[in-house]
Write a structure and sequence with these properties.
With about 190 residues, the protein is of the alpha/beta class. It has one domain: Rossmann fold, CATH 3.40.50. About 25% of the residues lie in helices and about 25% in strands. The chain has helices at about 5-15, 20-35, 55-65, 140-145; strands at about 45, 70-80, 85-90, 95, 105, 110-115, 120-125, 125-130, 135, 155-160, 180, 185-189. It has an 8-stranded mixed sheet. Strands 4-5 form a two-stranded antiparallel ribbon. Strands 8-9 form a two-stranded antiparallel sheet. Strand 2 (about 70-80) and strand 3 form a beta hairpin. The protein is globular.
Length: about 190
């Protein structure tokens, strides 16, 4: 399946899922996430979910419980360069929606976390394939960001749906996941 076709299919699937279904799937994903062999962390880079995305709040709470000193960072996107920065955040950090409706931390007195300091990245996606490659929203923000992280950074995708066989039009710049967690299964690549 080509990325454009996958975006269309999985965007539509998400729109038809009810809030009740998404809440149930979020709970199942959290349970599976808790079984991942994640070492002690210093810095987590995650996303604040849009309404139809896998909600990361409970996962962040779980990782904070395991690692009380954990620093959590969220992306702030630059839509002119299709790049993003990791912004250190706390429970008190205010979030605002960017032009695409994605919640981002406000940049007031923001601390930018160096990409090399990040231990785990939780990555949003529309779908993924059996080789661990993902289809995102088409601008390459995460692939560009991941290219600057450490080689040993753990990349985890969260998906409501099981993988497709293969993304046919992968590019040399696409960065595969280490894991993807769905309501039914955890995939390791």
């Amino acid at each position: 399946m080509k990325k454009s076709e996958a975006r269309k299919i999985f965007t539509e699937k998400r729109k038809t899922a009810t809030e009740q279904q998404r809440n149930k799937w979020d709970d199942l994903i959290l349970i599976r996430f808790q079984t991942l062999p994640i070492p002690d962390l210093n810095v987590l880079f995650t996303y604040a979910a849009m309404e139809t995305e896998v909600n990361t709040d409970a996962i962040v709470d779980y990782l904070h419980f395991r690692n009380p000193a954990l620093q959590v960072a969220y992306p702030v996107c630059d839509f002119d360069t299709y790049t993003m920065q990791a912004i250190a955040s706390t429970i008190d950090t205010p979030f605002i929606k960017n032009r695409y409706g994605t919640p981002e931390p406000r940049m007031d007195n923001a601390e930018v976390m160096p990409s090399q300091s990040i231990d785990v990245v939780i990555i949003p996606l529309l779908c993924f394939d059996k080789d661990g490659y993902r289809v995102g929203y088409g601008k390459g923000f995460y692939d560009k960001f991941l290219a600057d992280t450490r080689e040993d950074v753990i990349k985890i995708g969260l998906s409501y749906y099981e993988p497709i066989d293969k993304i046919e039009d992968r590019s040399e710049f696409d960065v595969p996941l280490n894991y993807c967690v769905t309501p039914e299964r955890t995939y390791e690549f």
